[in-house]
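G., the chain you wanted modeled:
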Amino acid sequence: MMPWDVQKCDDYQYFKNIYYLNLHCDDETRELRLRARNWSDDLIQDHKSFAKWLLENADKAYASPMPIADTSKAGVNEVAIQISEWVRGRTDNYPENLT
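Predicted structure as tokens:
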């Protein structure tokens, strides 16, 4: 989900913190994946531009730093482990650990 989509959520006001993780891939991988989904050249270019913007501006545009999980060469399981480790790292300070 994109941050502006999260902000539209009815329950948004009840969350103290919201953290974002950037699932990123290189432009070549992005293009191959989007072409396989029959995306137009214009949409592919838009997503390449947004991915570049996100890499350059995420730390300035959002309240907390946005880590990056590179999905270019990593398999689904490896990416899931990276996400799990990130989430667990965020919850280490809570009294009731979510392990």
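Confidence is low (pLDDT under 50) at residues 95-99.

Shout if anything looks off.
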